[in-house]
Amino acid sequence: MIARYMIRHDYKINTVKIMQISVYYFASLRELMGQANVVVDVEENTSVSDLWQRLLKEQNIQFEKVMISVNAEYVKPEYQLKAADKVAFFPPVTGG
Fold it and tell me: I want to staple 44 with a disulfide (CB 3.0 to 4.6 A). Which of 11, 17, 39, 48 is the partner?
């Protein structure tokens, strides 16, 4: 007999939809944040910029510019998160 389980990536609390988002940090951000990845709960209509500001505040860190990808595609800061999104934060890259 094979047991099947359904993983639910979103749920409601008092009519506010809460979503689970996977967050990944790369390069110097990994060291700064003290971890490579984390799963966080966010409310519906949260932008990646809102998420980034929340994460910085929780860690009491200041970091002005960051590159953001969601599900392996670069996005603008106003991108609205969806349940089960995979968000990656990168420090800006410079070169010559």
Answer: 17
Map residue 53 onto helix, strand or coil: helix
Residues of the chain with pLDDT under 70: 1-14, 94-96
Domain coverage including residue 19: 10-90
> Cβ distance 14 to 4 under 8 Å?
no
Amino acid in the structure at residue 42? V
Tokens 């929780």 found at: 58
Predicted structure pTM score? 0.81
Q: Where are the beta strands (DSSP E) in 1-96?
A: 10-13, 16-25, 37-43, 67-70, 73-74, 86-90
Q: How far does Cα 37 stand from its chain's mean position? A: 9
